[in-house]
Each structure stands twice: as structure tokens, then as C-alpha cells.
Amino acid sequence: MEFKFSSSGLTGQDKTLQRFFEIIPGLTSWCVIIGMIILSFCKPIIAAMIIIAFDLYWLMRLLYMTLFLVLSYSRLSMEKKTDWMERVRGVDNIDEYRQMLDEKKPDRLKERIVLDSHIKELDRLEKSHKKPPSSKDIYQLVIIPVAKETREIVEPGIKSIAEGTFPAERILVVIALEARAKEEVKAATRSLVESYKNRFFDILEVRHPDGIAGEARAKGANTSYAARKSAEYLKEKNIPYENVIASCFDSDTVVEPDYFAGLTYYYLTFPDRERASFQPVPVYNNNIWEAPGITRVLETGSSFFQLIEATNPDKLVTFSSHSMSFKALVEIGYWPVDMISDDSAIFWKAFVHYDSDYHVVPMYLTLSMDAVVAESWWQTVVNVYKQRRRWAWGVENFPILMRAFLKSKKIPLYRKAKHAFKLFEGHIAWTTWAFLLSVIGWLPAIFATREFSHTVLYYSAPRIAGTIFHLASLSMIVSIILSLFLLPARSGKNPILKRVGYAFQWLLIPFTIIFLSAIPALDAQTRLMLGKYMTFWVTDKSRLRENGK
Amino acid sequence: MQFFRKIVFYVCTAIYLVVCPVLILYAVGYFYEPGVAGGVVKTGLISLATAPSGAGVYINGKQYAKKTPTLIRELLPKSYDVTIRLPGYDEWRKTVRVREEKAAVFDKVILMPSKRSEKEISSGGYRDLIELPGTEIILLDGGAGLGSINVYNVSNGKEWPLADPKSPFARYAPISLVTTDNDDSFILLSSLESETKYLWIETQTDDNVITDITPYFKGSPSYVEWAQGDKRYIFSLHNETLTRTDVENAAEYPEYVKDVKGCGLFGSEIYVLKKDNTLEKMNLDKSNLSVILDDPQVGDLAFKSAGFYKIEILSAETILFLSDSGALSANRLPYKFADKGVLGIKPDDGKKKILFWTTDKIGIIDFSAEATGNVEFEKGPSLTWVYTAGKKISQVYWVYDGSHLLFRDGGDIFLISLDPEGDHAVQDVLKMKDARDVFYSENTGKLYLIPVDKGPLFETGIVPEKEEGRG
Predict the structure, then answer these.
(1) B interface toward A at CB cutoff 8 Å?
(2) Alpha carbon distances (Å) from A229 to A154, A522, B185, B377
(3) Contact (CB, 8 A) for A21 and A398
(4) Nearest-CA distance from A462 to chain B in Å?
């Protein structure tokens, strides 16, 4: 479907519908929060019953997510030993490779699971009759947007790309530099290009001019410009777009050595590869040991969320650094140039363009980014707040998607309802659950009139809530354990003690889920509701040295 | 994985749809009771908390597993004999009617010690104890002039003389005392030979400030008051005329307000009831005058009694009027609550109820919104007599967050346990040889008394310390 995936330049009914759907999420969130407060005051009995029902629902959902977190993490850890390049080569000679796999009889359960999954993926490819290109014809396009990041931030990522198992001579790195960047940033980019010139197929600097009409000061505008220039470059080099996998990273993204090999494997084995994005698991390990406790807990939570989402590819949406078919990227018109949440918007744009015939393939590979760290604790908190608010601004996709769904005649109603509900419910849960659990849940008892305080419910409700929270702590324990496994090795004194200290930082959850998750999300939704659109705020990326400076 | 995820989703949904309603019904009080027709019964519970805690609970003679504070749940709706026992304390017994889906709450049970102990806390020879209402300060009168009066702070146990023996006022004998609620200052009318003095005394640990304000009082005022915490202005009533005296700059404003029938201060405002039964409110400097009541019918109904009305402001909605003759009125229907005989009134901490007493009765008026209810005929604030067998009731206190009343009837001290159902229990606390004023502090939970003439000051516990949650 031809649809302008944008909120700007609308007129008439489109504009009205856009505003209507912009108001809905924020209004719903506020109605839930304020409504429950009023209900707790006016009808505490009904409010207490609703809270019990909600607490139980939350517990079931938490245990459900924990189960899939464990399964997903298990798969991630099982795939750590996978030789992805071997698999890639195997796909090139799939018949012989398949025979070789059939003869393998691994002893360990983990290896059997991994092998079974791998065989299923190959079987799926064979059944589709969609022969993949040769791996030798696959090129990687890596776009790295830079606005004010120093060489210290950007270089580790480029280095990790160069030193991976995928041949660097088939990787095209494009540093998408904002023209408004400071001179020292420009100089650093130039020197990076010089340093790595001979390591890749090519490394280019593309300067994104400032003030192009119709563009917001958003990362998507920069990366889209770079992608257009890359398309011209690839055309000159006669490299077909369908053989190019585009990856859009953050300036601080560092990939694991097997990332591009694994990406290539997933691309080759997914039958509808030209209608797919490929989503890795983001971790924030670049500077995790320098970050304060609240940041560590939050960033780990984000990684967990992606791990859980990976188990449901049918509803998976792209997030942060990810990859996709370059051909699809060109066909859909690149990233939106006037949206902040370009990482998720690109998926929705493709989803609408291809009438829902677009997929996200979860990859059990990690890439690492920086946790938010600033010079002072308070500045870190402020930066985290702003980052979360920017992430929550992904709600801007909702009104655009709803307009698209209303217009689309080809997307099945079921799929529209499913995705619209998930997007909407996800954002409402983001803003309201923390309040319902931490604050509003106790209001009926606090506001209790004499009538309510002399009911069985008044005494039962806190006891039931307490039991539910105790059961929920099982999930917390699992999360703490898994988070310890996700952490990188810590050098220096007392690494074990540091990990123990990290575990205790999970006790900050009640504070972080309200002040650094729910409130920023509510802030974003309220801004959208009131028409106070956000401008892009580049998250400060800085690294502290070991001595804390 | 997706198929497995779907299975798990449907299983979780099914579990939720079954467990959720069951859980809510359980929370409300439904319980499965085999042997009962239908199997499911609506239950109630009893909530018990005692001071001190850790007492054994017996339901219909059988000991309950847990000690107080505790909840006894899943009780069928009927009557239960509840007994609480703790070594060293008298048994507490009550027949409790449990209703379905309701909680019978007894969360402020005071256990009375089997043998009451009194602890001497000040060894002086005192004749009388005088409280400064709303404070933790009491005056201990040795009976030989101001020099023999000590000030005692019950919170920290500090004691110091009211006047230095070398002070010119030390030999003056106290005649009467004027206090205002929640203020540790007072005006003392005292005399030495033929000379009478009005002394303004601000109690400060070890160093009271005594100011002679006699020049400001011409004649004997029938009423004196000042704003709590604001010592700038003193209002005194002479022959139905209110005079304002500015202490700091020694200015006097006679005839500040005329034709005064009643007066009361609240914050920075003064309420004046005029002889024509109009009620006015103004700032202490007479600005912002507003008329609150200008209805002769209502005024006549509420203020029938002759004499002066002391005005007490309970809250923004409730104003109380207590006349010299003990008539108690309010600005809430039915306006008049007692025709005569009311000796004193005391609001509770929440300022929604007041207790009042006559020589033989103690009553509580509940002004909270719930008292009016949502009925066709408005009930008005509810008046409940909690004790009607008194002989010479002179002091009454709210105890333990308004759950009990402590009162002195002659030389006897009693404790009433207030019951929402009206079944108030009266317990003896102690008997004094002479009828003498006592003091109860809600902060310390103790009663202070001078059991014998020219004897020391004693304290005895009413609410055990550890139950008060006080640091």
C-alpha cells in the first residue's frame, strides 16, 4: 500500500484522525490513573477488587514472561558456541551440508537443541524453494550515525566490525555525519575513515546537510540521507540491492565477532529475506561497570524485554540497532525523516507498505551499546529519564499506524487488530502498571472510610497483594540470576563482590519503574496528547575511565 | 517455540479466568465450608490488637493459634465469646457478633494490669496539679505562693521552679489561672496581702519569663483569651465589652467590640457572638469583618441561655458554643445539644468528634459527614451518651486515638472502652484518697496524679509504651 508514513503535512480528515489517535494513548493512561484514584476514594470496595484482579493478572503475565525469558536466554547461551561462518558456508552447499548434519549425533542436550533448530531452519528454506544468493555475493552495509560522538565512542564499534569473522572486505561502512557537528567531531570522523580505509570494502563519510525541508532534527533523517547515498554508491559498483544487508547502528554499537556471520546466516535461511528485518538482542555492556546501579538495572531490563519478545516473532517490532534487507529499505523509502522513533517506525513503515507481508526475524546474537553514564549521579538520572522518554515516544507510531490500518484494504482485520492492540496495550501498560502496583494499589486502604475498614475485603486485600508480590519475587530472583550471566567479566579488585553488589541493585526496581520508566513514558504520551511534539535529544555518550573520571 | 507459546498463553488465560473470580470471592469473605448446604458460605472476621501485645486469644473457650495482634478469619456469621488473656493483666472478654463480609474490629484493646503500680517521679510535697491544656506541661502547686510552684514536663521529665525564690513574685499566692489550648503560656491572677497582680508567664525550661501585665487589666475581666502561639494581643471582656491589649507596645483598645455575648479565637481570627445573637468573624486587627449568622430565629434557638458563650472552632465547618451555665450549641443541626450543665468539651485529634461532660454524664457528638448519612431526613451529628452513672465528673480525656475515655469522678479514675455498637465497658483504674485533679498525656500514655495531700507526683501507665509506636 502506498502510504505516507508520517504525521506531518496532513490535511483534512487525515489530520483530524491523526490528532484523534494522538490523544487516545495519553488520555487512556491518565483516565486509568486518575480513574483508579477517584474510584479508590469513592468506591474503595470496587477499587480493591479491581486491584486484586489486576495484581493477579500482573503476576500471571510476569511468570509467563519469566518462563520465556529463561527459554530465550537459554537459546542465546546455547548459540554462543555456534560457528556461524561454517553455517553460512553450509547454506551455500546445502545438500551436502544437510547430509553432514543428519549424521551428527550430539551427546549433550544443548547441542541437540541447537542442531534441531538449525535443521528446522534449513528445512524451512528448502521447502520454500526460494534459493538464497551465494554467501560470497552478500555485502554488509553498516550505517553509523554521528552527531557529537568522539572517536573514543565510535571507534570501538568500527573496530569490532573489522575484526569479526565475516570478511571485512565485503563490509561497506558509512559514517553518517551531521553537517552541524563540531569541527573536532568532523576531524575525528575523517581520521577514522583514514585509519580503517583499507580494512573494509570501503568506509565512507556522508555529511547530512542541515535544514533540509521536511526533515526534523532526527536520526532517521541522517541515516536516510546516508542510505540514499549508499544506494547510489552500490549502484555504481553494480552490487544488487537484494544481496545487501543494511544495518543501522548507534554510534556506540559494538558487535560480537560473529555478528555479521550470524546475520548473514539468518538472512540466507529466511525465505522472505527481502521482506524482513533482523533483530539482535541489545545489551549495554560497553560501560556497564561504570554506570550507576539504576542505569544497570534499567538497561538489563531492556535486554530482557527484547529476549522475551524474541520468542514471539509474529509480534516482534524492531528496536534500536538492527538489520534489514537493503532492497526493502529502498523500496519503502528509507527511514522516516520526521520521526524520532525511527527504529520501530521503519518496521511499521515496511509492514504497511507490504500489506503486512513483512517480518522480523529474532537473532540469537548480541550487540552491545553504552549504558547512560554522566559525570554526576544526578545528571545520569536526568539523562536516563530523557532516554526513556525518547523510547516511549515510539507511541508516535500509533496514530500513523491506525490511519494506515483504516485505509488498508489488504491487511487482514485480524492482523490489524492484533498489532494495534499490542502497540496500544504495550504503551498503556508502560505508563500505568508501575503506578497501579506501587501506589494506587494501596489507596483504598489509605482512603478507607469506616464502612470499608470494617469489611473482610479491607483485611484480605493487602494479604493477597502481599502473597502475589512474594510470588512475583521468584521472577525477580530469576531476573537477577540471568542478569549476572549477561554481565561482562569485571576486571580489577573483587569482581565477585561487584557482582553481588550488582544483584542488590535490583532492589532499586520500585524507584526505577516509577521515576525512570512510567513517568517518562507518561511524559511522552502527554506531550503527544497535547500536541507538544518532541525534538530529538541525542543521548549523551561518554565513557568514564577506570578511576571514575 | 511459537506453538509452545500459544499453549502456555491459553493455559495461563484459563488459570486466570478460574482463579481470579475465586480469589475475589475469597477476598470478600466467601469460603468453602463442607457440610454446609451449597458448600459456599459468606464469612466474617475478627481483628484483635491489644496494648500490650502478645496476649493469648480464646474463641468460645478454645485457644487460637496466634497471639495478638491477629486476625481470626473465615468465621461463620454468628456470635462468639472472645477472651484475651495475658499474665499480669485482667482478662478481657466480649461477645462478638460476626456478620457476613464484615470485620469486627477491636484494634485498640487496653489490657488492665491486675495490680496497678504507681511510680514516684517527683518527690516534692504538692497540693495540686494544674494542666496547661493541649501541652505536656503541668504545674505542681506546693501551696505556699508562686515560689512553691514547679513546672513539670511529662514528656522529658524535666522539673523546674515557676518563679525564682528571689523573684519579686515568689510570695504572691495564685488565685486563678487562665490558659488557652495548646499554649505553654498562661495568665495567673495572684495576690499578696491586698495587692493583686496579673502575671503573664511563659514556661521555658529552667527559665520561665514572668511579665507583670496588671496595668493592662482595669477591673476584673470575666473572660480573657489570646490566640494560640500569638502573644501580641490579649482579649478581655469587661461588662459585655471586649478590650484588646497589645502586650508588646503596651497599647490598649477599650471597647474594641461592644455588646459581646460570646467570643473565641481561631488562628488569626476572632469570632464574636453579639447580644442580638448575630455571629461575626474578623481578623485580630478587626479587618475582614464578615457576618456568619444573622438569623434571629436560629440565633434564638441556639443561644437561648443567658451568660457568656465560649466559642470553640472545631473545624472550618463546625463551631461550638459553651455557655457559663453549661448550654452547648453548635452551628450544625439541631444547633442545641445540651440546655445546661456541660462542664467541659474536648475535641478528638481528628477534630470530627467532641466529648463533653456534665457532673453525671459523658457524651460524644460525632460531626463527621458519615453521621448525617444519605437519608431522606437528615440526622445531623450523632450524640451518644457513653456514661450516665457519674456523681461528680470533673475531668475527661480521649485515650488511645479516641478508642477510650479516661475520666475522674470524684476521687475515682475510670477507663471507658468505646464500642461502635454502644456496648461501652467501664473499668476501674484507681481510687484516690482525695478528689484532686489529675493529668493524662496521650503522648506518654500515662496518668499523672498526686494521690495524697502535700505528697509527691506519681505516674501510672494507662496505655503500655510499646503499643503507642512512640520513639
Answers:
(1) 1-2, 5, 8-9, 12, 15-16, 19-20, 23-24, 26-29, 43-45, 47, 71, 73, 101-105, 370
(2) 21, 38, 85, 82
(3) yes
(4) 10
Q: In angstroms, what separates the C-alpha of B68 from chain A's closest C-alpha?
A: 15
A209: left (phi over 0), alpha (psi -120 to 50) or beta: beta
* Residue-level length of chain B: 471
A150 lies in the same domain as A101 = no
Q: Please check whether residue A70 touches B, CB under 8 A.
A: no
Tell me, yes or no, whether A91 and A169 share the same domain.
no
Q: Cβ–Cβ of A313/B2 closer than 8 Å?
A: yes
* Residue of chain A minimizing CA distance to B44: A456
Smallest Cβ distance to A56: which of B8, B16, B45?
A: B16
Q: A184 and A109, same structural domain?
A: no
Which of B1, B8, B30 to substitute to test the interface with A, most A CBs within 10 Å?
Answer: B1
Interface membership of A438 toward B (CB under 8 Å): no
Structural Rg of chain A based on CA atoms:
24
B290 within some domain? no
- Chain B residues close to A60, C-beta within 8 Å: 12, 15-16
Strand stretches in A289-441, DSSP E: 322-325, 359-368
Q: Which of B8, B9, B23 lies closest to A56 in CB terms?
A: B23
Please give the tally of structural domains in chain B. Answer: 1
**Distances from the Cα of B95 to the Cαs of A454, A459, A510, A519, B421, in angstroms?**
17, 21, 44, 51, 12
| Residue A339 placed within a domain | yes
Contact A52 B44 (CB under 8 A): no
Under an 8 A CB cutoff, do A60 and B16 touch? yes
Nearest in space to B310 (alpha carbons), one of B336, B297, B328: B328
Residue at B67 is within a domain? yes
Together in a domain, A65 and A122: no
Position B305 in a domain: no
- Scanning every residue of chain B, which has its alpha carbon at the shortest distance from the alpha carbon of A454? B103
User: Can you give the pLDDT of all 549 residues of chain A as single tens digits?
Assistant: 888 888 888 889 999 999 999 999 999 999 999 999 999 999 999 999 999 999 999 999 999 999 999 999 999 989 988 999 999 999 988 888 888 888 888 888 888 888 888 989 998 998 888 888 888 999 999 999 999 888 888 999 999 999 999 999 999 999 999 999 999 999 999 999 999 988 999 999 999 998 888 888 889 999 999 999 999 999 999 999 999 999 999 999 999 999 999 999 999 999 999 999 999 999 888 888 888 888 888 888 888 999 999 998 888 999 999 999 999 999 999 999 988 898 999 999 999 999 999 999 999 999 999 888 888 889 999 999 999 999 999 999 999 999 999 999 999 999 999 999 999 999 999 999 999 998 898 898 888 777 788 899 999 999 999 999 999 998 888 888 888 887 776 666 666 777 777 777 788 888 888 999 999 999 999 999 999 988 654 555 555 544 444
Residue numbers in B near A315 (CB within 8 A): none
Q: What is the CATH number of the domain that holds B101?
A: 2.60.40.10
Closest CA to A252 of A358, A372, A72, A356: A372
**Long-range own/partner contacts, residues B417-420 (CB < 8 A, 24 or more apart):** B417/B109, B417/B110, B418/B364, B418/B386
Say if the Cβ atoms of A449 and B370 lie within 8 Å. yes
Phi and psi torsions of B246, nearest 5°: -95, 110
- From chain B, the residues in CB contact with A464 under 8 A are 23, 27
Number of domains in chain A: 3
Residue to mutate among A46, A64, A452, A456, with most B CBs inside 10 A, is A456
Report the alpha-carbon distance of residue A25 to residue B240 in Å, rounded: 67
Q: Which domain holds residue A104?
A: 85-128
Length of chain A: 549
Residue A452: list chain B partners with CB under 8 A.
none
